[in-house]
Write a structure and sequence with these properties.
Layout: H1 2-11, E1 16-24, E2 28-35, E3 41-47, H2 49-52, H3 57-67, E4 80-84, E5 87-93, H4 100-107, H5 112-131, E6 144-147, E7 150-153, H6 158-166, H7 185-188, H8 196-211, H9 221-230, H10 245-254, H11 266-273
Antiparallel strand pairs: 1-2, 2-3, 3-5, 4-5, 6-7
Helix pairs in contact: 3-6, 5-8, 5-11, 10-11
Length: 276
């Protein structure tokens, strides 16, 4: 991995000072960097090689340029995208407060009022993007960042950009765009998705904030998908009896197998929680 950092550092030296590898996900390697042109600290995400061989780079950059036009207080904006050598990258501001995943690893479960506050902000960003016909497809704690008191969704629309640039949802290596434990049943089954797949993922994130893990887990993606399709979500109140019944009912409806049976917007889910 050190060799890869050096390769990225050399390839992107004209635009960024690559400082360190922050982590790797299903779509990209994430680096802390400084943008030469502005001097600002940024996060640079370099697409994984198995994705870069499938996508049309011009189409990908067109999609990123469109996504950069999304402006909302709870969406971390995209700044630019480009390519150098074999690397295709996109950049966004660096969020100093870390991620929701980091926080859950420290605290495991969040107090109800704090989970509500985060959910309310995420729902606002989600509904704004949906109003602009952009679906996230990969909402999860790793993609929720904090900046002061704001909760920010990052990578909004990047999965869509990859899908549109590749013309398919699965790479030749079998990599599904999305993260199994947060994918709706229709997304896991490879069926068409709409905004309600993000509502499902938001319900998964709320579930995890309250219980410490997503509703369906397993040792392999196939195990998770089988549980999503065939099992009812666990009861929140069985683990946290202090939670109001209204909260459990709202989250479980957000996790409905059929999109028509879910809340249709993020705001509807948050209102049903009593998080106003």
């Amino acid at each position: 991995m050190t060799l890869r950092v050096e390769e990225v550092r050399r390839a992107l030296a004209g635009r960024f000072e690559i400082q360190e590898l922050l982590g790797s996900g299903g779509m990209a390697h994430v680096f802390a960097a400084r943008q030469h042109r502005t001097g600002r600290r940024v996060a640079v995400k370099v697409l994984r090689p198995e994705l870069t061989v499938t996508i049309l780079t011009e189409r990908f950059h067109q999609e990123i340029a469109f996504l950069a036009s999304l402006h909302h207080p709870n969406i971390l904006p995209l700044l630019e995208s480009g390519e150098s050598g074999f690397f295709i990258y996109y950049a966004m501001p660096f969020a100093n407060g870390g991620s929701l995943k980091d926080r859950l690893q420290r605290e495991r479960r969040l107090p109800l009022t704090e989970a509500f506050a985060i959910a309310r902000q995420l729902a606002a960003g989600i509904d704004y993007a949906h109003a602009h016909n952009v679906i996230h497809r990969d909402i999860k704690p790793e993609n929720v960042m904090f900046e002061a008191a704001r909760s920010l969704l990052c990578d909004f629309g990047v999965a869509r950009a990859i899908v549109r640039a590749a013309g398919e949802q699965v790479s030749p290596g079998g990599l599904v765009v999305g993260t199994p434990s947060y994918m709706s049943p229709e997304q896991a089954a490879g069926r068409p998705v709409d905004q309600r797949t993000d509502v499902y993922a938001l319900a998964c994130v709320i579930f995890e904030m309250l219980l410490g893990e997503p509703p369906f887990t397993g040792p392999t993606p196939q195990t998770v998908f089988a549980r999503q399709l065939g099992e009812r979500p666990p009861s929140l109140r069985a683990v946290r009896p202090d939670l109001p019944q209204q909260v459990e009912d709202a989250v479980l409806r957000g996790l409905a197998k059929k999109p028509d049976e879910r809340w249709q917007t993020g705001d509807a889910l948050v209102q049903a929680l009593g998080a106003d």
